[in-house]
Specification:
Blueprint lengths: L1 H28 L3 H4 E14 L4 E11 L18 E7 L5 E7 L2 H7 L9 E10 L3 E10 L2 E10 L15 E6 L7 E8 L6 H15 L12 E7 L38 H8 L6 E6 L7 E3 L3 E5 L5 H14 L34 H12 L2
Helix pairs in contact: 4-6
The structure holds zinc ion.
Zinc ion (ZN) binds next to helix 7.
């Protein structure tokens, strides 16, 4: 009897200890969104320039937007290190309350080791609005433990009422509504579609919305993904193709031939991308350029871009979004492509060829972990 009681007490003590440990771990590790942040977004803009080995950045401005659309869990944990980081630290406690990794076109430029200076890139990042005075740091991470803080800026702003936040300029169409509040907000943006071509843009976005939910693991998460489209016409139809002498007046200055690579579509004007996307709640901007010519680009937590008129538009979307959403590497052999060691280079995956209509198991698992980590 005594022995049985001792065993019970010991088990109870062990369970109590385990629960206390879990509670302590959670309370230390988790930054609760509501405790540290208002349900508002700050869109931070800066200018960055440099050469192949170093860079400088200058803070430009804040804009305050309505509700926060990004992750509300794991805010201070940066699992996926990339070339840029944004860190928010509370002034009074010095505690890191937000830490996110992203990349940018400037970092892609630096990775190509050009000899000449880069000129200015207008870039930026979205962060949640801290409740108490904080310092925001923008960091260039070169890897192998080498990182530079490009600038620090203090945030001590009063929370504005919703009607004082930046107002939408364009009509927004909801293509798919999530049923959970903690969702992923995807926004499609048109580049080089005129007023008369908005239906063409909308048709392509509907095709891609349907296409996204035909791919695993997105197909399992249709309840937690929202998709919308901003109906913003460009003054002229099509986009720049410098190698063919084609120039167009468009909203975000996207161009083929970025860095001299014909199929690479990009823009130095991220301010225009984030301003246009901010017509609605968003945390992933997907740009359709009005062209059928093959090409694209996808940059982690920055943007995905591809031609809306290409016959493989859905496959291009899933491929580029793989880069931007989950930091998936290209799996085709090409100088400069970081093929991950120990990966089977002959396996099938849409990150290898657009003729394969699925992610491989590793890519699927990575996308799944990003969705579940939010
Ligand atoms: Zn893969």
């Amino acid at each position: 009897m005594t022995h049985l009681l001792t065993v019970k007490i010991t088990r109870f003590a062990a369970l109590f200890f385990l629960l206390m440990t879990v509670f302590h771990t959670l309370s230390v590790a988790q930054v609760r969104f509501g405790k540290y942040f208002h349900d508002r977004t700050l869109r931070l803009s800066y200018t960055i320039s440099g050469d192949s080995t170093c860079c400088k950045a200058d803070f430009e401005a804040w804009q305050v937007l309505g509700h926060w659309a990004g992750a509300r869990r794991g805010l201070d944990v940066c699992n996926d290190k990339s070339s840029m980081e944004v860190v928010i630290r509370e002034k009074s406690t010095r505690r890191v309350i937000y830490h996110k990794s992203f990349s940018s076109l400037f970092c892609e430029w630096q990775s190509m080791n050009f000899d000449e200076p880069s000129g200015d890139f207008n870039e930026g990042v979205m962060i949640p609005f801290p409740k108490r005075p904080s310092v925001v740091s923008i960091i260039r991470n070169y890897g192998a433990g080498h990182a530079d803080t490009l600038f620090n800026v203090s945030v001590d702003l009063p929370k504005p009422p919703l009607h004082d936040c930046e107002r939408p300029e364009y009509e927004v169409v909801t293509l798919h509504a999530a049923i959970t509040r903690r969702c992923i907000d995807i926004v499609f943006l048109p580049e080089g579609y005129t007023e008369n071509e908005m239906d063409k843009f909308l048709e392509a976005t509907k095709k891609m919305t349907k296409g996204l939910f035909e791919y695993e693991p997105f197909s399992h998460h249709f309840k937690s993904i929202s998709i919308s489209a901003v109906l913003a016409p460009s003054p002229e139809s099509g986009i720049d193709i410098p190698s063919e002498g084609i120039e167009r007046k468009t909203l975000m200055d996207f161009s083929y031939d970025t860095f001299g690579i014909e199929r690479y579509i990009g823009t130095r004007n991220y301010w225009a991308v984030s301003r246009l996307a901010s017509n609605t709640r968003w945390d992933h901007a997907i740009i359709l350029v009005n062209s059928d010519r093959y090409g694209g680009g996808g940059i982690l937590n920055y943007y995905s871009v591809f031609p809306g008129g290409n016959p493989q538009v859905t496959e291009l979307f899933i491929h580029e979004f793989g880069h931007a959403f989950a930091n998936l590497p290209d799996e085709y052999e090409e100088p400069g492509n970081p093929i991950v060691p120990n990966r089977e280079s002959d396996r099938d995956c849409i990150m290898k060829t657009l003729d394969t209509h699925f992610y491989c198991d590793e890519c699927k698992a990575k996308v799944e972990s990003v969705i579940r980590g939010r």
